[in-house]
Amino acid sequence: MPDSSSIRRLIAEFFGTAIIGVATIGVTASQQSSVYVSLVIAGTWALMLLLFSGSLNVHLNPALTFFYIARSKLKARVGSLIVLAQVAGGVLGVWLGSLLGGHNWWQVSAHNISNGQLLSEIIATAVLVWFIGHLGETKQDSLIPVAVLGWLFVAGVFTSSGAVSNPALTIGRMFTSDAGAEIGVQQGALYILAQMAGVCLGLLGMMFVTKSGRAKGKKKLKK
What we know:
This protein has 8 helices and no strands. It is mainly α.
């Protein structure tokens, strides 16, 4: 049975991801430029991280949760509950965003994959988890919202996929249509595989490039 802090964490993961979903559908449906869309989505996630920072230490993204499980920073059982909360929040957020924009709230999308989208998701997710993981390991957690804002903004502009980088929102966007943010079911499944590949690349980057992911060796002074 989860304790009170764990329950609060799950609620925060649910509502935080839902708000990001609402913002994603709302701003995309408004037919604004890709720069504006990327700024709103990245800004919303950064603000949710600030809101739920501290003791809750939310991820709001299954890619990050899997990353911390792989780093043995989070137990798999707890991580699976967090992922479920994130996915439920993502689906609810997309649904609410569709309703607020006057669109169909539940319709399976059949969009196809475009050239470069899967590579875009691999790169966008890899750098995202690398940034966050590195900042966490080097005790610079306060900079994580800034890093998320900066990277998702620029990646959202220069990638062909818009740098979704979030399996929970990918699943939510698979079940909405005519809102401008829909992702096809087959397309979404491949997006998630690409995002998980990005998690692996981000982990390798920490281990072998910035070396922030390596276990610290025990330094013993010889007497």
